[in-house]
Task: inverse folding
């Protein structure tokens, strides 16, 4: 697990509620668990000292940030028409359906940090206990694809994609309380652990006009709809005709503010009701409910909770934006993701990823490598020029594809005349060196016409680099592959 010490935040994080599940799990391996009915629960109506309120409120904010984030995305994105695009750039659809892009994601979007320019994305949010959803899988042939399905904790559920050898056809997504038989014509039933869930299809596309044309019939069959509309026939939607709607907007160049500290504790209770505790989290939930109860009875306690949430946003959540707090060292100054999309009790990485690059794929589907710094541990800056050389045979070993993406200081694309934001498998005009190695050039200044096909344009200030390895082979899966050195050349 990654570690850092942001002012007083880590002390608060581990001093109380967030260690409860770990302690409970450890104890369960050494002694019989007491009967649940015999365990005393936090008393209601107690007068909590101010420091206790702040400690518990801070841990609740860090723990609950990803779950409230998911709830607020659901609330905003499901207001879209069908088919729709939020602010004209993000796929969006009413509850129980998805919308697909018919090209790479628009470089101007700021609804989701660290998007890629390797796939055509889809997005949909579901309330699966209210309405099970059928999702269609066309015959993608040899093309890489994966439908990442997330519960409200941002854990993936189900296995649907090329890494799982999934067959074309129809799949039924259901909630934790759904009871029923698999309908005729459905390949499989896929169950979420929470009623609120979302799906993000990713379909690989080469950066060529020919592949953009070839992929359209496939994308138009990536459709989801309530079970009541299932008739056993493959439906088609022309996603190029999606309508734009207005949604939340960001200020200052960063990601849309999905979690608002001032409103957090007004939303947490509903989240605790909707998301059942994982084994070992029962005490955690009881502590947070006792806090909400105290805040509901005493305006001074509620104000202290809100003030603590605002402070935690500043001195804890914002620090997760830095890549040194994301994952574990991967060599040559890079970090790599861990536990991605299967967080369990790893609240640190769950919240860190929700802030810096939400909606990772599982490690077997995608491994992520990222850095803010060059080989000398100095912040990457576009006023400098850099070379990133993969030795012959040392590009990321994958069965799917790989890419290296450049993000600005907010983890979004940098607009440039080449309209180029990443390089990798999708690019068919990369030039190799005489020895078979591959050098990518990074900086605000062109490396020269002869090398421009391998150039990632950078802003004239700080930026970061991010390598994706989809469906990794040995080296990626066992952690032995190391990303290349980032060498400053001028």
Result:
């Amino acid at each position: 697990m990654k570690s850092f010490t942001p002012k007083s935040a880590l002390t608060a994080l581990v001093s109380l509620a967030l260690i409860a599940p770990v302690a409970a799990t450890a104890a369960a391996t050494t002694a019989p668990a007491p009967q649940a009915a015999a365990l005393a629960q936090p008393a209601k109506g107690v007068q909590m000292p101010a420091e206790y309120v702040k400690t518990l409120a801070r841990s609740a904010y860090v723990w609950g940030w990803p779950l409230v984030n998911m709830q607020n995305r659901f609330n905003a994105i499901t207001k879209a028409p069908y088919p729709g695009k939020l602010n004209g750039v993000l796929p969006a659809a009413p509850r129980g359906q998805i919308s697909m892009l018919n090209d790479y994601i628009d470089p101007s979007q700021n609804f989701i940090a660290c998007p890629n320019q390797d796939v055509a994305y889809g997005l949909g949010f579901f309330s699966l206990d209210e309405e099970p959803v059928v999702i269609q899988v066309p015959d993608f042939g040899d093309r890489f694809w994966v439908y990442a399905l997330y519960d409200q904790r941002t854990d993936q559920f189900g296995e649907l994609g090329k890494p799982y050898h999934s067959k074309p056809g129809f799949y039924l997504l259901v909630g934790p309380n759904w009871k029923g038989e698999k309908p005729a014509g459905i390949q499989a039933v896929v169950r979420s652990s929470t009623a609120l869930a979302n799906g993000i299809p990713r379909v690989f596309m080469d950066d060529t006009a020919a592949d953009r044309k070839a992929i359209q019939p496939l994308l138009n069959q990536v459709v989801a709809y309530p079970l009541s509309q299932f008739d056993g026939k493959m439906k088609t939607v022309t996603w190029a005709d999606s309508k734009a709607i207005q949604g939340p907007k960001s200020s200052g160049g960063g990601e849309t503010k999905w979690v608002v500290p001032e409103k957090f504790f007004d939303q947490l209770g509903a989240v605790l009701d909707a998301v059942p505790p994982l084994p070992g989290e029962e005490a955690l939930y009881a502590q947070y409910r006792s806090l909400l109860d105290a805040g509901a009875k005493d305006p001074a306690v509620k104000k202290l909770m809100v003030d603590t949430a605002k402070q935690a946003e500043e001195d804890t959540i914002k620090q997760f934006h830095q890549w040194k707090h994301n994952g574990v060292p991967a060599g040559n100054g890079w970090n790599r993701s861990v536990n991605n999309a299967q967080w369990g009790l790893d609240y640190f990485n769950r919240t860190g990823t929700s802030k810096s690059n939400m909606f990772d794929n599982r490690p077997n589907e995608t491994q992520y490598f990222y850095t803010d710094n060059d080989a000398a541990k100095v912040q990457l800056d576009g006023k400098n020029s850099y070379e990133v050389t993969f030795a012959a045979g040392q590009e990321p070993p994958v069965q799917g594809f790989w890419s290296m993406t450049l993000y600005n200081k907010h983890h979004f694309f940098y607009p440039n005349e080449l309209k180029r934001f990443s390089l990798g498998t999708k690019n068919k005009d990369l030039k190799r060196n005489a020895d078979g190695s591959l050098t990518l050039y990074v900086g605000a200044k062109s490396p020269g016409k002869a090398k421009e096909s391998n150039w990632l344009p950078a802003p004239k200030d700080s930026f970061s680099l991010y390598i994706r390895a989809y469906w990794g082979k040995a080296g990626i899966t066992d952690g032995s592959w190391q990303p290349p050195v980032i060498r400053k050349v001028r």
